[in-house]
């Protein structure tokens, strides 16, 4: 018998499905100027962060998402030194990026400081690299930040956003991608969290069209499991400033990586590049 029969459930209207967690108690809640952030303790998944009713992460399964948002792009780029993360206020992506010894500067720009304050308290392991001399944490509008970024100054831009509604809506359109393209050096890579590869293919197509219209060359969507997000299956999309594709990556470096991972390996990376036929047909990958 479990001590609790109280559940948090995210009903995802677009997919006609839900994901839920059994709770022990509510730990915190804050209404920031941008959104409502809730923190729960669960019986089996550690702590849970919810923003405006949407699951952001759990202690137990966030490594899947954070590793896949970072390592495929950083092991595809020949020598990533300068990285910007838009969103990502929980600092999990930042931690993974900083594991790469070649990275000299990693800027995280999230509009909502409260997300980071909550992560420091309830997901301290994700924030363990925040004091790294290479890290810079900004609490600012990511759209404006990318617009004002020096042209040709970045190797990788990672958009670790919420769904394309509310504050994150402007992170999925052509104007924003144009700013990203301008800020990247030739051969630079944009990574965008790109929702469920099963239920949100239409959204993914629109997003990729906006990237193409902005001038990005090669593109590739990598699916991965993510139990806490709608349908339990998620994806990131990589886009290149230039035509060089994503089929080859620094697989020897990935295999010999000087840090521990729990999901990402060179083989997992290779596997994620194998696009299932239905998705290949829909996206042209
Ligand atoms: N990632 C949030 C992805 C969107 C989840 N959508 C949902 N639950 N409806 C940002 C947090 C991880 N750093």
Automatic annotation (TrEMBL):
<dbReference type="GO" id="GO:0005829">
    <property type="term" value="C:cytosol"/>
</dbReference>
<comment type="similarity">
    <text>Belongs to the spermidine/spermine synthase family.</text>
</comment>
<protein>
    <recommendedName>
        <fullName>Polyamine aminopropyltransferase</fullName>
        <ecNumber>2.5.1.16</ecNumber>
    </recommendedName>
</protein>
<dbReference type="InterPro" id="IPR037163">
    <property type="entry name" value="Spermidine_synt_N_sf"/>
</dbReference>
<comment type="subunit">
    <text>Homodimer or homotetramer.</text>
</comment>
<keyword id="KW-0808">Transferase</keyword>
<dbReference type="Pfam" id="PF17284">
    <property type="entry name" value="Spermine_synt_N"/>
</dbReference>
<feature type="domain" description="PABS">
    <location>
        <begin position="5"/>
        <end position="241"/>
    </location>
</feature>
<dbReference type="Pfam" id="PF01564">
    <property type="entry name" value="Spermine_synth"/>
</dbReference>
<feature type="binding site">
    <location>
        <position position="66"/>
    </location>
    <ligand>
        <name>spermidine</name>
    </ligand>
</feature>
<dbReference type="InterPro" id="IPR030373">
    <property type="entry name" value="PABS_CS"/>
</dbReference>
<feature type="binding site">
    <location>
        <position position="35"/>
    </location>
    <ligand>
        <name>S-methyl-5'-thioadenosine</name>
    </ligand>
</feature>
<dbReference type="InterPro" id="IPR030374">
    <property type="entry name" value="PABS"/>
</dbReference>
<feature type="binding site">
    <location>
        <position position="90"/>
    </location>
    <ligand>
        <name>spermidine</name>
    </ligand>
</feature>
<keyword id="KW-0620">Polyamine biosynthesis</keyword>
<feature type="binding site">
    <location>
        <position position="110"/>
    </location>
    <ligand>
        <name>S-methyl-5'-thioadenosine</name>
    </ligand>
</feature>
<feature type="binding site">
    <location>
        <begin position="160"/>
        <end position="163"/>
    </location>
    <ligand>
        <name>spermidine</name>
    </ligand>
</feature>
<comment type="pathway">
    <text>Amine and polyamine biosynthesis; spermidine biosynthesis; spermidine from putrescine: step 1/1.</text>
</comment>
<feature type="binding site">
    <location>
        <begin position="141"/>
        <end position="142"/>
    </location>
    <ligand>
        <name>S-methyl-5'-thioadenosine</name>
    </ligand>
</feature>
<comment type="function">
    <text>Catalyzes the irreversible transfer of a propylamine group from the amino donor S-adenosylmethioninamine (decarboxy-AdoMet) to putrescine (1,4-diaminobutane) to yield spermidine.</text>
</comment>
<dbReference type="InterPro" id="IPR035246">
    <property type="entry name" value="Spermidine_synt_N"/>
</dbReference>
<dbReference type="GO" id="GO:0008295">
    <property type="term" value="P:spermidine biosynthetic process"/>
</dbReference>
<feature type="binding site">
    <location>
        <position position="167"/>
    </location>
    <ligand>
        <name>S-methyl-5'-thioadenosine</name>
    </ligand>
</feature>
<dbReference type="GO" id="GO:0004766">
    <property type="term" value="F:spermidine synthase activity"/>
</dbReference>
<keyword id="KW-0745">Spermidine biosynthesis</keyword>
<dbReference type="InterPro" id="IPR001045">
    <property type="entry name" value="Spermi_synthase"/>
</dbReference>
<dbReference type="InterPro" id="IPR029063">
    <property type="entry name" value="SAM-dependent_MTases_sf"/>
</dbReference>
<feature type="active site" description="Proton acceptor">
    <location>
        <position position="160"/>
    </location>
</feature>
């Amino acid at each position: 018998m479990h001590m609790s029969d109280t559940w948090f459930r995210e009903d995802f209207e677009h997919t006609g499905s839900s994901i839920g967690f059994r709770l022990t108690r509510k730990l915190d809640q804050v209404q920031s100027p941008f959104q409502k952030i809730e923190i729960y303790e669960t019986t089996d998944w550690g702590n849970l962060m919810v923003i405006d009713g949407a699951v952001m992460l759990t202690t137990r399964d966030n490594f899947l998402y954070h590793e896949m948002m970072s390592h495929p792009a950083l092991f595809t780029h020949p020598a990533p030194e300068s990285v910007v993360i838009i969103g990502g206020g929980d600092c999990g992506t930042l931690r993974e990026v900083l594991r790469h010894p070649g990275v000299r500067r990693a800027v995280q720009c999230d509009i909502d400081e409260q997300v980071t304050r909550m992560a420091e308290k309830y997901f301290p392991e994700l924030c363990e690299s925040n004091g790294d001399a290479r890290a810079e944490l900004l609490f600012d509008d990511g759209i404006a930040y990318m617009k004002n970024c020096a042209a040709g100054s970045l190797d990788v831009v990672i958009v670790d956003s919420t769904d394309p509604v509310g504050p994150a809506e402007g992170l999925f359109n052509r104007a924003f991608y144009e700013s990203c393209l301008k800020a990247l050096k030739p051969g630079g890579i944009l990574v965008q969290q790109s929702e469920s590869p099963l239920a949100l293919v239409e959204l993914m197509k629109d997003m990729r069209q906006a990237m193409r219209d902005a001038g990005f060359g090669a593109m590739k969507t990598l699916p991965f499991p993510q139990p806490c997000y709608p349908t339990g299956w998620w994806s990131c999309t990589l886009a290149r400033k230039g035509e060089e594709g994503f089929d080859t990556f620094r697989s020897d470096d990935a295999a010999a990586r000087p840090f521990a991972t729990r999901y990402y390996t060179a083989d997992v990376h290779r596997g994620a590049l194998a696009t299932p036929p239905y998705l290949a047909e829909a996206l042209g990958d």
